[in-house]
Amino acid sequence: MRTGRKIGAVLIAALVVSGCARQDRAEGPAVIALTAAPSPSATPYMIDGTPATDPALDDIAQALGDQGRGAFADTYSDIYVDIPPGAVTLYVTDVARGQKLVDAAKKAHPTIDTGRIKLVVAKFSRRTLDAAIEKIMPPTGVDPAIYSVSPETDGSGIMVTAAKDKVAAVQSRLTRKIVIPTGIPVTVVPGDPIKSVEAVGTAPAK
Fold this sequence. Notes:
This protein is of the alpha+beta class. It is 27% helix and 21% strand. The protein contains four helices and eleven strands, in the order E-E-E-E-E-H-E-E-H-E-H-E-E-H-E. The protein has a five-stranded mixed β-sheet with strand order 1-6-7-8-3. Helix 1 crosses helix 2 (95-108).
């Protein structure tokens, strides 16, 4: 069973993402493990006596994310923590650029253990996917048929949840709007409306 935590929340209708229309791709699967001396870890957050986080992995993810959202946005796609257990998986569209990203993260944060980083090739960068997501959920308005939009976990495309009776129509529209012109796969599945923060836990008192 795969367990872990994705860095970044699902983009829902009210959220706005940023990016540009450039498409950064890489061909074929590849996995490269990088090695370095281990570094000490702080005390993890515990739930019922079981470690729920590994601060050392969180530090690695933060360091990689800083670089991925900055100078290496052309290749950075996503970060997963604890997949596989005890590692940080960094999805990039180009292995050489990914290695440079790791090197830059290590330079900026010398205490991180790069031996716990695994590079995996993704088809699209987060910048490319975010640009497409912004076209699906533009900042100027909200599509009532679409409930949420998020990048696929491996950078291979976009996942959309929509009203159950609108899935086919939304899929057809996004195929014309996104898939055909950009080549980015979009999968539309039925979902449920996202409750607003104000609507959660506001049942009237008895």
